[in-house]
Design brief:
Length: about 300
């Protein structure tokens, strides 16, 4: 599983290479915009701003596979499909596994959305028309923003942290959604708790003042509680944004069940949602980029100016 997950970003990026013509679309790319600093590390995003006919909406593109993230995995071809329809795209690189665990990564994504919203005037978009997209781990983080985005802290010293991390629409590929019931009831994907899985993202740690160091959390009840906190399926509510998911029916890495269960929860909560099942689709497929326009259509539908 770990090796399979690690191959995702390479597979997904390679599958987008057919769309080289999109790279000719007009946009201005601003690289390495710093949205957060932590533990002496600068976290960055690249901004793709349309030079013609901006539509006043923004897309947060989560650059993540196996919860690993790097600037090298940002592909302009993927952003271009959105840019050519007028979206400003923010390709976000989060603190990467194995250095950082899931709770830390989730915090990065909340900060990224707040930062994006703080730049609405600069990039000429409506801060209340922000969508998010990603694949696999990127899809998981997209859905966490959708279901667990929060209002800002009005008392925060940093003005960025006073802004909301909620998004207004989601479209993603094959996302993990319930890390505690992964493919079957009771099977977790919390590293050593699972028969197979990626360990580093679930190496949950807490600061111990007595030893002045971060120590591994080993208490199983606490680990399961953290697993719930970082599982989108446990945060679904009626005010969640419209969500589109595309998932292959023979995915060996993220079970189709993961998308099915959260879509059922969205339906129960009367959240507009759709699951497109790709016949014969594994964890990515050769022409996956041909499905990206469906995502853009979804955002056009729900982020269009009212």
């Amino acid at each position: 599983m770990q090796k399979t997950f690690a191959c995702l970003s390479l597979l997904f990026v390679a599958s987008l290479s057919w769309c080289a013509c999109a790279a000719d679309e007009p946009y201005v790319r601003t690289e390495d915009v710093i949205y957060r600093r932590k533990h002496g590390t600068a976290l960055t995003m690249d901004v793709f701003a349309p030079t013609e006919n901006p539509n006043g909406a923004a897309i947060v593109l989560v650059v993540s596979g196996s919860w690993r993230s790097s600037h090298e995995n940002i592909r302009p071809q993927f952003a271009a499909e959105y840019v050519k329809r007028g979206y400003t795209v923010f390709a976000v690189v989060h603190g990467s596994s194995p250095k950082f665990s899931l709770p830390e990564i989730v915090e990065d994504m909340h900060r990224a959305v707040r930062f994006v919203r703080s730049r609405a005037e600069q990039y000429r978009f409506d801060p209340e028309r922000v969508g998010v997209t990603g694949a696999s781990a990127g899809g998981h983080l997209s859905l966490l923003l959708a279901t667990a985005g929060t209002a800002g802290d009005p008392e925060a010293k940093d003005p960025v942290d006073r802004l909301s991390s909620r998004v207004q629409a989601v479209a993603c590929f094959f996302p993990p959604t319930d890390l505690l019931n992964y493919g079957e009831p009771g099977k977790t994907i919390l590293g050593t708790d699972a028969t197979t899985g990626v360990r580093a993202p679930s190496d949950f740690r807490a600061y111990d003042e007595a030893v002045r160091a971060f120590v591994l959390i080993t208490d199983q009840d606490k680990r399961l509680e953290i697993g719930r906190q970082v599982s989108p399926a446990y945060h679904v509510s009626a005010d969640d944004p419209p969500t589109l998911i595309i998932h292959g029916d023979v995915d060996p890495t993220v079970p189709l069940q993961q998308s099915q269960l959260i879509i059922e929860k969205f339906k129960e909560a009367n959240v507009p949602c759709e699951l497109v099942i790709k016949p014969g689709g594994a964890h990515g497929w050769p022409d996956i980029a041909r499905d990206v326009p469906a995502f853009v259509d979804w955002f056009d539908r729900y982020l269009a100016k009212k």
